[in-house]
Specification:
Distance between the termini: 36 Å
Largest sheet: 4 strands, antiparallel
Shape: globular
CATH topology: Alpha-Beta Plaits
Order of helices and strands: EEHHEEHHEEHE
Number of strands: 7
CATH architecture: 2-Layer Sandwich
CATH class: Alpha Beta
Number of domains: 1
Strand content: 25-35%
Helix content: 25-40%
Strand order of the largest sheet: 3-4-2-5
Number of helices: 5
């Protein structure tokens, strides 16, 4: 992943917080506009799962094998922020124009640094289980594979602002408003 980011040749893309994830406790956002200025090099990753074409054995494999591995990995990220650098995770189910669920989901995650993400992907059992299973299914089905997973990764190099208006305290990066925010 790092090799796909040309800037990484001259910038390690470290967090100004190093390995330490800041502790955010912001709670009250009712009737307020809150701006959260995120520190540089926060990572945005969207991991997608698409199984609309899957039938039979591949459909069963997604539900019985891959989906539990994905959920375990995502749970680990969000439940261990001090280790993984996970600042926020949103689970998204895609809907059609009528509001019916599609066989497509994604997880949108903000992580403190690329190093945090790399540490998890390279060595943690929960990610290795996902990776090994995806590769095994790719080898087994090749071009006939009906379940597709993907991810897109962005390193936010400048200091962006996220604005929250009258939002639940658990929304996005709002819990860090007491550290990085203005009201």
């Amino acid at each position: 992943m790092r090799d796909r980011l040309p800037i990484s040749a001259i910038d390690e893309l470290n967090s100004p917080y190093g390995d330490n994830v800041p502790v955010g406790n912001f709670r009250d956002s009712a009737r307020k506009r809150v701006r959260v200025d995120v520190p540089p090099n926060v990572v945005s990753i969207r991991s997608g799962q698409f199984w609309a074409q899957a039938k039979g054995e591949q459909f069963d494999d997604y539900y019985e094998n891959m989906r539990p591995k994905l959920e375990t990995g995502m749970s680990y990220l969000s439940e261990h922020p001090e280790e993984t650098g996970c600042l926020s995770m949103r689970h998204i189910t895609h809907l059609n124009e009528k509001g019916d669920e599609l066989r497509e989901t994604c997880k949108h995650v903000y992580i403190l640094s690329l190093k945090h993400l790399e540490d998890w992907t390279e060595s943690h059992k929960s990610h290795l289980d996902i990776w090994k299973h995806a590769l095994a299914m790719r080898r087994k089905y090749g071009a006939e594979r009906d379940f597709v997973s993907w991810h897109e990764v962005f390193v936010i190099g400048t200091t962006p602002s996220f604005e929250y208006v009258n939002c639940h305290a658990g929304t996005g990066l709002l819990r860090f408003a007491d550290i990085w925010g203005t009201f």
